[in-house]
Amino acid sequence: MMTLLREKTGFILWFVIFAFVGLIVVEWGADYSGPGQEDVGDAVGVVNGETITLKDFQGALRQLARQTPQDERPGQGQLVSQIWDGYTRDILLSQEIERLGIEVTDKELAFYTRNNPPPAVQAIEAFQTEGQFDMGKYTQFIGDQANLKDPNNHAFVMQIEGMLRQQLLNYKLQRALMGMVQVSPGEARRRFEEVNEKVRIEYVFAPGNGVADDAVEVTDADLAAYYQEYIADYEHPDEVSLEYAYFPKTASAEDSLQIAEEIGRLRQEIEAGADFAELAEAVSDDPGSAANGGDLGTFARQRMVPAFADAAFALKAGEISEPVQTRFGWHLIKVDERLEEDGEQKVHARHILLNYKASRKTEDQLRQWADEFQEKAVTGGFGSALTAAGIEAAATGFLQKNQGIPALGSDTTWLVNWFFDQESGTVSQVVESDRGLWIAQLVDKRSEGTAPLAEVKGQIERTVRNRKKVDVAANQLQAVQREIAAGTDMEQAAQKAGLERRTPEAFARTGAVPGIGRSNAVIATAFRLEKDQLSEVVKISAGGYQGAYLLRAIEKTPVDEALFEEQREEIAAQLQAQRQQEAVQNWFAHIYETAEIKDNRHRFFTF
Q1: 196 or 16: which carries more pLDDT confidence?
Q2: What percentage of the chain has pLDDT greater than the value 70?
Q3: Cα Rg for the chain, rounded, in angstroms?
Q4: Which of helix, strand or coil describes residue 598?
Q5: Which end of the chain has a smaller Cβ tally under 10 Å, C or N?
Q6: Which residue, among 492, 478, 496, has the nearest Cα to 534 in the 3D structure?
Q7: 514-527 pLDDT, tens digit each
Q8: 253-355: which CATH architecture?
């Protein structure tokens, strides 16, 4: 028993750290952050004065890696983010619990320790019978005072109490927050109507993108007016702007020739008796089929790229193709079966794929070039290094903290954060990924403020132009509206304008309507109309269906009052749970936004 409990200690500690997997569960987590007394130079982060030490952070990383199966283990960047989020949440929650004076009595703790062991404890085999938690075994252990004299047993029980104390504290905090949320009868009624009241309409749509660009004029005054009206949208936090040189890991001509020769050798091995499926599993670069012996299943000709399809459909069952080249690389194809389904010829085939990829020799050469570039950039300037290498830099635009470089992947967040502590002109080390190597330079830094009009002019110009196109479309529909008002039916009026009358199925306020979308002004207008009433022209200038709409209500289906009475309590409970969750999330978001958090992860980790 003691050996088993000692083995489980690390698991239990880790369970506590990550008990807070959501914002509205009882097990909100526990505080296993550092004591906040160590040198800030060794601090991965500081949350309202409380330090997360490098030692603790690394320990949590190792523990998570050990607890996660190798084939399910995420990359280091994701692990670092998970640990960071867990620590910051736990610290903030513990600080709020202390500030609010929430406490757990010894009597409460004793009761829950005896009667409500945490899931991590219930999962321990020593407390199970036939794979299920056995409360009798746990009660016998926890109630035997002789057991507690053993130091290992005593430490184990202290861990259980620590877990439960934190869970109870978090539960009391959660209940206090939830207690402030109430749902009125009117809210339940409105929710029922949103889902169950329906309307059926006919409408005409004039798309904004049907208007030519040169049919509208966008002036500098238009842009300036829009910028001033929506200036809050262009506020930004502290930001950095980078440029980088990129050395992609692409196959050289020599590499491509070697791949072509290798696919030929593989074919010779198969002709000499090697098993196709075994070779596919061992050497194929297709992750989707290699594990299944290269099996691609049954497919029609049009499913594959032409060169592959032509080769596959030229084979008889059991035959193997000559090497086939596509944009993916070199293939060998084996047809297992030819068949016909619904009058269409198909094959069941498998393949071996060798991707075009850089050899070790090519990658070593790239690393040498990147190292030489980085040295020249540091000593002689980034521009001079670019000229000497004969390459151009790519610009990132302005980036915020915890934002990666879009073209290089999410694992570049650490470098972006690192540049916030550097001076303009600073050059990074050589950074390598699966796709290539790159070196970045800090071009500019700017403090929190508002982006100038010149920077966002292109974005604003597109928005204003689209709005003006929608205005033109709306004018077209106003002519249709006049035709209908004069007695012409909607379909004829639409056809006269070169448009189409549409009649979707009846829909609710919360539904998505083909050709209209979800929860927009058109749907709101439809529910305001009386039966047979024609709307004014409705303009939509954002989203996937930008244009103008003219609609008429054909039929309105009221709610079933008896059904509402039957579902009233259930709806109120669902709405209460949703509002409680929103309240907890909003509360925590406020706590997080107002906290003083120093994030030093970029000094120690890539993420």
Answers
A1: 196
A2: 93
A3: 33
A4: strand
A5: N
A6: 478
A7: 889 887 899 999 99
A8: Roll (3.10)
Q: Same topology for domains 198-218+455-557 and 238-249+360-447, yes or no?
A: yes
Query: What pTM did the predictor assign?
Result: 0.71
Domain boundaries of the chain, sorted by first residue: 2-179+596-603, 198-218+455-557, 238-249+360-447, 253-355
In CATH, which of 2.30.280, 3.10.50, 3.30.70, 3.40.50 is domain 198-218+455-557?
A: 3.10.50
Supply the pLDDT for residue 40: 46
pLDDT digits (tens, 9 = 90+) for 221-278: 999 999 999 999 999 999 999 999 999 999 999 999 999 999 999 999 999 999 999 9
Query: Can you tell me which residue has the tokens 């249709």?
Result: 480
Residue with tokens 């019978």: 129
First to last CA, the chain: 40
Q: Exposure pattern of 542-571 as b/e (b: 16+ CB <10 Å)?
A: eeebbbbbbbbbeebeeeeeeeeeebeeeb
The per-residue pLDDT for 71 is 67
Task: Name the one residue in this structure whose structure tokens are 């020739």.
Answer: 257
Q: Residue type for 92, please?
A: L
CA distances from 435 to 96, 246, 288, 407 (A): 44, 10, 20, 11
Who contacts 15 (Cβ-Cβ below 8 Å, separation ≥6)?
A: 118, 119, 120, 163
Written in H, E and C, the secondary structure of 565-582 is HHHHHHHHHHHHHHHHHH
Q: How far is CA 587 from CA 17, 24, 180, 288, 580, in A?
A: 21, 11, 12, 44, 10
CATH number for the domain whose boundaries are 238-249+360-447:
3.10.50.40
Q: Where are the alpha helices (DSSP H) in 179-218?
A: 185-196
Q: Taking the CA atoms of 129, 134, 138 and 144 in sequence, report the sign of the dihedral they define.
A: negative
How far apart are the C-alpha atoms of 44 and 53, rounded to whole Å? 6
Let me know: does 79 contact 64? Beta carbons within 8 Å: yes
Residue 159: closest CA among 142, 134, 146: 142
Q: Please tell me the distance from the alpha carbon of residue 29 to that of residue 527, in angstroms, as a whole number.
A: 46
In the block, tokens 């069952």 appear at 317
**3 state SS for 295-361:** EEEEEEHHHCCHHHHHHHHCCCCCCECCCEEECCEEEEEEEEEEEEECCEEEEEEEEEEEECCCCHH
User: Which parts of 197-326 fold into alpha helices (H)?
Assistant: 220-229, 253-271, 276-283, 306-313
pLDDT score, position 180: 85
As a whole number of angstroms, the distance between CA 525 and CA 295 comes to 53
